[in-house]
Amino acid sequence: MLLSLHVKNMALIREEEITFGRGLNILTGETGAGKSILIGSINVALGSENFKKYVPQGAESALVELVFESTESAGEKLKEMELSPEDGLIVISRKYTGGRAVSRVNGETVPLKYVRDLAACLIDIHGQNQHQSLLHSKFHRTLLDRFAAEDLTGLTDQCRELYRRFRNISEKIAEASMDDSERAKRMDLLQYEIKEIEEASLTPGEDEQLEKDFRRMENGQKIMEALSEVQQLTGMDSGAGDEIGRAARSLCAAAGYDEVLKELSEELLSIEDQMNELDRGLSEYMDDFSYDEQSFYDTSQRLDLINHLKSKYGKTVEEILHYKEKNQEQLDRLENHEAYLAQMKAEKDKIYRQLTSVCETISGIRRKYAAVLSGKIRDALIDLNFPDVGFETRVTSLPEPAEEGMDEVTFYISLNPGMPMKPIWEVASGGELSRIMLAVKSVMADQDEIGTLIFDEIDTGISGRTAQKVSEKMNVIARNHQVICITHLAQIAAMADRHFEISKDVEDGRSVTHILMLSEEESVRELARILGGVEITDTVLQNAREMQAMAQRLKNKGSGESLPKE
Question: Is 0.70 surpassed by the pTM of this model?
Answer without folding.
Answer: no
